[in-house]
């Protein structure tokens, strides 16, 4: 049986002005509510360099069905309730990862011998 490709969630969140540091700390404090889920492969928080108060959250899952199950869970609803007061707006895009090209800087350096 072939392995399925990861299912990726890409959120764009715009945070109320002046609450960026609070958002970042809150996101870190509650992040294990997502990463502790057995189907979660990891998540990343990225602060936009182009638009003040804008963040991108990337989260990878073993498959779409597992993410959709989590999305409807009580844990996810609690997570959203905590972040919602900090958020001015947000959008979500989803997709399956088709390819991953590893960059040279990510390659292990061979031991000197």
TrEMBL record:
Residues in coiled coil: none
Keyword tags: Monooxygenase, Oxidoreductase
Pfam assignment, any one: ABM
Residue ranges constituting the ABM domain according to the UniProt record: 7-97
Protein name: Antibiotic biosynthesis monooxygenase
MF term (GO), any: monooxygenase activity
UniProt-listed PROSITE patterns: ABM (PS51725)
Superkingdom per UniProt: Bacteria
InterPro entries: ABM_dom, Dimeric_a/b-barrel
UniProt keyword annotation of Hydrolase present: no
């Amino acid at each position: 049986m072939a392995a399925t490709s990861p299912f990726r969630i890409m959120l764009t969140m715009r945070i109320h002005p002046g609450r960026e540091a609070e958002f970042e700390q809150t996101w870190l404090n509650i992040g294990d509510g997502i990463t502790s889920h057995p189907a979660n492969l990891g998540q990343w928080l990225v602060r936009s360099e182009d638009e003040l108060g804008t963040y991108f959250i990337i989260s990878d899952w073993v498959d779409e069905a597992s993410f959709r199950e989590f999305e409807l869970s009580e844990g996810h609803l609690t997570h959203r309730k905590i972040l919602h007061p900090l958020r001015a707006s947000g959008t979500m895009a989803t997709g399956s990862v088709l390819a991953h090209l590893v960059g040279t800087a990510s390659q292990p350096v061979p031991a000197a011998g």
